[in-house]
User: Which sequence fits this backbone?
């Protein structure tokens, strides 16, 4: 029900999850959040609520000490107002996006792969 875009500049990482308009009203009704993690784990580094004002759910992180190459951000949804079955379905729909840390500098690099 969402797709992501990412950008990286020096040590700043920005990820935007854009919610599909077919799902936005239902996700808002169950008070859904998009959760982001900088590694493949079950606990999020941050969960950001889906607001009434926007289809965009932003996540920003400072990434220090990252080795050069591709790195992955993981995202999934959680909802306070959902039953167990709905919570499980939302969590199963886990997406990833990669961002790239250049070897020669930590300068901005694009494009990024979207999944």
Assistant:
């Amino acid at each position: 029900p969402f797709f992501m875009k990412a950008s990286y500049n020096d040590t700043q990482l920005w990820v935007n999850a854009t919610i599909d308009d077919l799902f936005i009203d239902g996700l808002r009704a169950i008070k859904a959040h998009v959760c982001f993690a900088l590694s493949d784990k079950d606990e999020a580094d941050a969960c950001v609520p889906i607001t009434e004002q926007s289809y965009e759910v932003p996540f920003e992180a400072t990434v220090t000490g990252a080795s050069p190459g591709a790195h992955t951000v993981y995202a999934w949804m959680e909802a306070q107002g959902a039953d167990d079955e709905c919570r499980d379905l939302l969590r199963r729909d886990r997406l990833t996006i990669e961002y790239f840390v250049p070897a020669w500098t930590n300068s901005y690099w694009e494009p990024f792969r979207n999944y």
Observations:
- DSSP finds two helices and seven strands in the chain.
- The longest helix spans residues 84-92.
- The first strand starts at residue 2 and ends at 9.
- The radius of gyration is 15 Å.
